Amino acid sequence: MMRVLALILGILWATSAQAVLPNEMLADPGLEARAREISKELRCLVCQNQSIDESNAGLAHDLRVLVRERLEAGDSDAQVVAYIVDRYGQFVLLKPRIEPATYLLWLTPALSIVLGATGIAVYLRRRRGSAVETAALSAAEQARLKRILEERES
Amino acid sequence: MPLLLFLGLAAAFFAGLGRDPHAVPSALIDKPVPEFALPALLGDRPGLATPDLKGKVALVNVFASWCVPCRLEHPLLMRLANEGVELDGINYKDKTEDATLWLTDLGNPYKRIGADVEGTVGIDWGVYGVPETFVIDRAGIIRFKQVGPLSSDVIHDTIMPLVSQLSK
Predict the structure, then answer these.
(1) Cβ separation of A86 and B27 shorter than 8 Å?
(2) Is there a domain that residue B6 lies in?
């Protein structure tokens, strides 16, 4: 029982392997924490869906070291990010900036909701309209309906 | 209406099929060459620095002996050099011995070669996948970048026309 429990806890505690090597880390824990946060937002261009914080690629290592060098030189977080974007373009940002070129990207979810809601509204209105039409039976039809129902009951 | 939607989506997806998702638009196109100065890789050829790339149309090729696609494009670079096209090289994160051996074995198409042992200049150039080739105009502005190996098609249809247009 204990063994199973230990195994389960072990699996739950397991995290993804850390790419950041001990010799890359800064002595100052505050700076190192900032470096980690910045690195998580920057795309590794070799293995494109990993951040440089997660990637073992050589370029990711170089960029992690560069981020730390810039921080030690006194750059703000924004300055470090701008330094990398100047060289690699906005594509390195895992979270694109909100600006005219990316409005469509950011607004697509909202647009989808508006479009969907409009579609539902149109559909519901149309259905209600048709329900009203079918509700109206003429006097002759009413009489016939009554006759049918009576026949069935008898 | 659903048919129209389908056709529109199909057209959009089909157009996307031919694209290379790994090709990243360079942030440096139409920007000046970064400020850098690299020491010479070989004793008999000079290194490479920013002033070398001004005042003429220049081709800069980033290469490394550990890079397999570089071997693929090397014969094309040799042919360009034999045709009298001036090429400059940045040897990216390589060992000097390995790079020297590579150039001795395969031939040296470069006029100047800067050794970027740490890869820091590569980062300034936005290099992420060797080989990369840059076309730089007379004013020292980067006008074109090829990521990955050159092909005869790229050389003849894109690079050489651009070079002759910029040289006018």
Answers:
(1) yes
(2) no
User: What is the rounded (10 degree) CA torsion for B38, B41, B47, B49?
Assistant: -30
A91/B119 CB distance under 8 A: no
Task: Collapse the DSSP code of B61 into the 3-class scheme (helix H, G, I; strand E, B; otherwise coil) and give the result.
Answer: strand
Query: Given an 8 Å threshold on Cβ–Cβ distance, is B24 in contact with A66?
Result: no
Considering only alpha carbons, which residue of chain B is nearest residue A45?
Answer: B128
Question: Is B21 among the domain residues?
Answer: no
Question: Which superfamily, per CATH, for A2-95?
Answer: Cytochrome C biogenesis protein (1.10.8.640)
Look at residue B142 and tell me if it is in a domain. Answer: yes
Give chain B positions within 8 Å (CB) of A62: 118-120, 122-123
Q: What is the CATH number of the domain that holds B46?
A: 3.40.30.10
Output the pTM of the full model. 0.75
d(CA B51, CA B167): 18
Cross-chain residue pair A66–B123, CB shorter than 8 Å? yes
Question: Is residue B8 in a domain?
Answer: no
Residues from chain B that touch A59, judged by Cβ atoms under 8 A, are 119, 128
Query: Quick check: B123 and A91 CB within 8 A?
Result: no
The ipTM (two decimal places) reads 0.78
Q: Are A131 and A123 in contact (CB under 8 A)?
A: no
pLDDT digits (tens, 9 = 90+) for B83-128: 999 999 999 999 999 999 999 999 999 999 999 999 999 999 999 8
Find residue B38's DSSP bridge partners. B48
